[in-house]
Amino acid sequence: MIFYDYWRSSAAFRVRICLSLKGLSVERRFVSLLRGEQMGAVYRSKNPQALVPALELDDGSVLTQSLAIIEYLESAFPRPALIPADPILAARARAVALSIACDIHPLGNLRVAEYLGRELQLGHDRVAAWRRHWIASGMTALEAMIAPAPFCLGAEPTIADACLAPQIYSAERFGVSLAAFPRIRAVAEVYAAHPAIVAAHPSAQPDAAQTAPAP
Description:
Blueprint: E1 2-5, H1 10-21, E2 27-30, H2 41-46, E3 54-56, E4 62-64, H3 66-76, H4 87-108, H5 110-118, H6 124-145, H7 159-173, H8 182-193, H9 195-200
Parallel strand pairs: 1-2
Antiparallel strand pairs: 1-3, 3-4
Helix pairs in contact: 1-3, 1-7, 4-6, 4-7
């Protein structure tokens, strides 16, 4: 399998966590969002949305959208399970994942920030305030949705944790304090010591040192 990745992409970070938890080795190809490599014809032929990540399977099939890729990995490589067997817990895990991937992350990603600055002429401070508002709002809801013991929904990491860890990284990156979120702080401490999550962290990626700081 070939994984098209970018070190600071929250969506790619989610998939890296799942690959790491499942002990899967993949070929890595790095797509620099800051250099606009995602817009090139070769990559767009694989992912018409021009987003990362993408996962190319051995038969040439290409999967896009981080949660769809994670669901594929869960079906193809079911151990360890990242979606609980209990249907209620499975729904709750997916709800946490979707609230992050659909309701928080898209409002602050690079292409949205660039549009706010370039097209709507919002200055850096106002774009930063936009990001902080939506992250804090989303984190407030997540605080009530999780019950760390020690992970989001119990003793083992799930798809919820694969999404929450990158969102915590984004919160810290954009200056959103976790002081008001004791449950989220608790799982953040667990993530910081978990080998699979540490290995997937942006700072540990080979392309991190080759990339200029993101705006």
